[in-house]
Amino acid sequence: MPRFFIKKDDISGEVARISGDDARHIARSLRMAVGDSVTLCDGEGRDYLAILSKIRDEECLCDITEEQAAVSESPVSITLCVAYPKGDKLETVIQKAVELGVATVIPFESSRCVKRPKAEKIDKLVSRLSRIAEEAAKQCGRSILPRVLAPVSFSEMLNITKRSSLSLLCYEDENKTTLKSALLEAGTPKDISVIVGCEGGFSPEEAAAAVSAGAVSVSLGKRILRCETAPAYVLSALSYVFEL
Fold first, then answer.
1. Mean pLDDT over all residues of the chain?
2. How far apart are CA 100 and CA 92, in angstroms?
């Protein structure tokens, strides 16, 4: 069943409104008809089953038939902080991270980043990445629309992760603490930040700064994972521990 995100303000009684690109998508691409069913998500953890009652390019109206609490979200709010990678890897990371339950993605700059976003292109970048996150959320049945923030500096990223109940630094030179042992000791945190490096990983100085800021340095095993593989590995582990 097609899935669309709407705002609370788009719901009036038992009628919901879909507008913008989603309305055009319903009318033109999906070629849906009055009477077809859709699922609407308010982005705050509520799903609505609805039936289309009016279809126009600029606006579609739906009659809500059922409201229910979301069942597709992780019980732990996860923030993924990923050092800016080369090429289009960030798009892949965001898509897979959303599928695996992440709530927020924060790109950041580290000393070993080869590619760095240009200031004049950041707004366009965030808009594109947010669309990728939204499409992934629709495809995998999410009920909350994950956020993609504008790139920040390494120190700004650490200031953000300090607020989490548990912050994990995925560090290739860590040889004592494993991801498994860190999660076993963590209990059930309310929220988790996961910090992943770019192609060159983190410098020793950056790793030390992250630990000083409260992050737990963890190893992801004996193999060196690509920067686009490591986030999926960690998020899969978190899903296994906290969801299954």
1. 94
2. 12
Q: What is the pLDDT of residue 90?
A: 96
Sheet-wide strand order for 37-41 = 3-5, 37-41, 46-55, 59-69, 15-19, 11-12
pLDDT at 72 exceeding the cut of 90: no
| Residue entry with tokens 């599928």 | 99
- C-alpha distances out from residue 223 to 84, 173, 229, 240, 244, Å: 21, 11, 11, 20, 25
d(CA 35, CA 26): 13
Beta-ladder partners of 232:
none
Residue from 119, 122, 120, 118 nearest 130 by CA: 122
Length of the chain in terms of residues written:
244
Does 176 score more than 90 pLDDT? yes
Closest CA to 94 of 63, 55, 122, 133: 133
Tell me the whole-structure pTM to 2 decimals. Answer: 0.89
pLDDT, tens only, 90-115: 999 999 999 999 999 999 999 999 88
Q: Give 38's strand partners.
A: 50
Distance of CA 222 to the CA centre of its chain: 27
